[in-house]
Specification:
Largest sheet of chain B: none
Helix content of chain A: 40-55%
CATH superfamily of the largest domain in chain B: RNA polymerase sigma factor, region 2, helix turn helix motif
Radius of gyration of chain A: 21 Å
Number of helices of chain A: 4
Strand content of chain A: under 5%
Distance between the termini of chain B: 29 Å
Number of domains of chain B: 2
Number of strands of chain A: 0
Shape of chain B: globular
CATH class of the largest domain in chain B: Mainly Alpha
Largest sheet of chain A: none
Shape of chain A: elongated
Distance between the termini of chain A: 60 Å
Order of helices and strands of chain B: HHHHHHHH
CATH topology of the largest domain in chain B: Rna Polymerase Sigma Factor, Chain: A
Order of helices and strands of chain A: HHHH
Number of helices of chain B: 8
Strand content of chain B: under 5%
Oligomer: heterodimer
CATH architecture of the largest domain in chain B: Orthogonal Bundle
Chain lengths: 98, 169
């Protein structure tokens, strides 16, 4: 892609992950050298975020918040959170001494 | 966010109360599984707690970041490692002006989006939902629906243009 994408929808499609192949590569290549288009992509991500609001919100189980409680300082070790173990860099895992 | 960056657990609890429903619901819609959606929710708020100091409100609202993160994490999980790089989007900037800080603002935005989607012809809405909630590419949507690739592209572009006009007015 030599010039800017012609349509705003190009950024929306890229933000959604819908472009593929040469179309995706061409836009990616252009974005690396064009701050104006990079900003348009940020705006497209903002638009894409709103589509999520089409889903009727339901409250999660109270247990999710309870599982997050050990994150608060002094309340417990972070490694108790099973689904988060993969996310923690090694340096941040602090195990109790006993 | 400054309070969270400073370790204020109450501030995190307030944000969790405000946004956990929408984050969880979009993850559940994508994943179709309560437990997996709860893990996405948990991971996102854990990341928020740890990275609050790097959040720049000048570049977009927290609501935008949370919703993009929810969708991307859920899609990445749904699709496994096939498009793992897709999840990297969540560390990039999301420019969004909308906020959901009051229930009135949230309800207004939800109504706007739902009305906009409801006005789309069925085939355009289907293409958009397959792209958004299943993370399918153009050719994957064409394969799923049995429609020509060019038709799918046109439907998606038209749907996105309609949506953009509706939510940015």
């Amino acid at each position: 892609m030599n010039g800017h994408p012609q349509f705003d929808e190009d950024f929306d499609l890229y933000a959604l992950g819908t472009l593929e192949g040469e179309e995706e590569r061409a836009l990616e290549s252009h974005l690396t050298g064009c701050p104006a288009c990079a900003h348009k992509l940020e705006e497209a991500r903002g638009r894409a975020a709103r589509v999520a609001l089409a889903v009727a919100p339901e409250p999660p189980s109270p247990e999710v918040w309870e599982r997050l409680q050990p994150l608060t300082p002094g309340d417990g070790p972070l490694w108790r959170l099973p689904s988060l173990r993969w996310f923690l860099p090694c340096s941040s895992v602090v195990r109790p001494s006993n | 966010m400054r309070q969270i960056a400073g370790g204020d657990e109450k501030a995190l609890e307030i944000l969790y109360g405000r946004y956990s429903g929408v984050v969880y619901s979009v993850a559940r819609r994508i994943l179709g599984d309560v437990g997996a959606a709860e893990e996405v929710l948990q991971d996102i708020f854990y990341q928020l707690w740890r990275a609050a100091s790097s959040f720049d409100p000048a570049r977009g609202t927290l609501a935008g970041w949370l919703l993009v993160s929810a969708r991307n994490r859920a899609i990445t999980r749904l699709r496994g490692s096939h498009r793992a790089a897709f999840g990297e989007i969540e560390v990039e900037a999301v420019a969004s002006k909308f906020n959901l800080e009051s229930s009135a603002a949230a309800n207004e935005m939800m109504l706007l989006v739902r009305n906009a989607l409801a006005t789309l012809p069925q085939e355009q809405r289907q293409a958009l939902e397959l792209a958004y909630f299943e993370g399918l590419t153009h050719s994957e949507i064409a394969e799923r629906t049995g429609d020509p690739l060019g038709t799918v592209k046109t439907r998606l572009r038209t749907a996105l243009a309609t949506l953009r006009r509706a939510i940015e007015t």
